[in-house]
Task: structure prediction
Amino acid sequence: MVDRLIKKTEVADLVNRLLEKYRVYAPVRQQDMANFQEISTADQVDLSLANTTLSPKSIMLPHSESMFEFTLDKTANQAGILREVETDHTPRVIFGIRPCDAKAFQLLDLNFDTPAYKDPWWVKRRQITTIVGLGCNAPCATCFCTSVGSGPFATEGMDLLLIDGEDEFIIQVITAKGHELLNDLGIQAEPSREKKDMVTALQESSLQSIKSVVPTDSLKHHEATALFSADFWEEVQFACINCGVCTFVCPTCWCFDIQDEVSKSNGIRLRNWDSCMFPLFTLHGSGHNPRSQKLQRLRQRFMHKLKYFVDKYDSGVACVGCGRCVQQCPVNIDIRQVFLLMNDFKV
Amino acid sequence: MLNPYLPYPVKIDSVITETEDRNLKTFKLVFLNSADGKRFVHQAGQFAELSIAGKGEIPIGIASSPTEQGHLLFTVNRVGVVTTALHQMMAGDVIGVRGPLGNWYPWEQMEGKNVVIIGGGFAFTTLRASIVYLLHSDNRGRFGDITVIYGARTPGMLLYKDELKTWDKRSDIQMHITVDATDQPDWKYNVGFVPTVTQEKAPSAKDAYAIVCGPPIMIKFTLPILRELGFPDERIIMSLEMRMKCGIGMCGRCNIGTEYVCTEGPVFTLAQLAQLPPEY
Result:
């Protein structure tokens, strides 16, 4: 589809027009952090951020969300019977998401939208959301997206991609949904030949600037049981304090817990993010715990992302190379090093 | 689209205390809406999530056979928050059921074959479902010899005592009931651990499948005996337990390697388990 063009001075106006019809989520500076949040005015948006502190996964899988509600009042005829909580399903736009984070949504589709079962909240949120990405002219030192099937201008999971071309953004149209959004906003201008060439050069230099490379070619050929019993886990886990920050910031960590909460006679069943780093995650009622040791829990996280997921779905690793866990880990465990250990493993 | 997390409302029809320690109770559940009951079509070996509003959910094997119409049975050991709350409930109370979930014992594959069922303690629930299913007049002719070895710590800790007696009297099923120990002078069944009794009774491996459910220690010592008897790993079938939340392969905690126990399991052959990391 034909590319479009918008002047940077027009972006605020564009966002404000989006806000008239959509709930808009965009990167916003929040004191020491920067995160995606629902915005109310265009001036909140900050497209200059390299990337947000947390991944935008909460837009599709909220950190905590009410699934069902119920009353325990015995005099009510529906006492103890769960009913779905009303959820806002009006259309939304994610504006300014990076390619790695957009690809993560596609990977999570493999878990939440399956032939056997569909997670209704995930599926609905995916349907009502139009995704406007933002290419990366200046990737971080910790970015390794190009090794894991993404890239600074990759378009997987996006409907539109904005590419920063100095005074303007070139808009790549990826899907019909994105095309519709542009027409809806009346954006008709097309980039000149020169502009396109300039952008191509920008993309090339951005690609060249990514120095972090991890190997993935041998992951699927190893025996899972052999990798599982490898000696290197002892070394990798040594410093780990099982804090769970890696899973918290990760765009492809989706594990969740389901809990009931009651106040007086009203209750909700909710789901919260959970983490394989915590012993309670797998603790049986009997007291038995298949992953009682931190080595087992750390191994589960990396094996899941770089081996089990690869084998199960044949869609690559469950990592998009955003580098957040590398930046945030308090004891400097580096997933890039684990890629190397696992991929180049010799029995 | 039906929400796979939404339990069907059911009423507790009756509660039976199964064991002398009063820690195991069987709950007979009846669907509040008959349409839900029609949708709930299960196979022996599957499980369901029992839901108590305000407490949460627990995955429990279905103890009733698909041939028993109009209700579901669940035998529940009291261990945690939800099971304790359930044990305090009575006939007439409303809870929820979500399922059926997971896979089941490979009945089609076992057609025409002999079936050896080995159970210990309170893991006998889906085995009860299996025995009732196999003995049903529609099914009994489809299978060869049926042998059951079932053990508990004491006579009072056996589940389904009345049914055990009935099955023991039948000629189309070979029952070997055992207890670890007893001081009952009139105890007329076996005394000894399940692995030992399995070795003594030595069920033939010829054209036979073994289904094994029980505590880890029983499984650990029974498997070598089955191998000695000539059962190949492909015909030793086990049902695993794991902490679960969603029950539909999404929440991420019950995996063994690539396999989620809630969807790819809970039933695995020993041959399948040998391909997976030993983490369960």
Summary: Chain B has two domains: 8-101, 107-239.
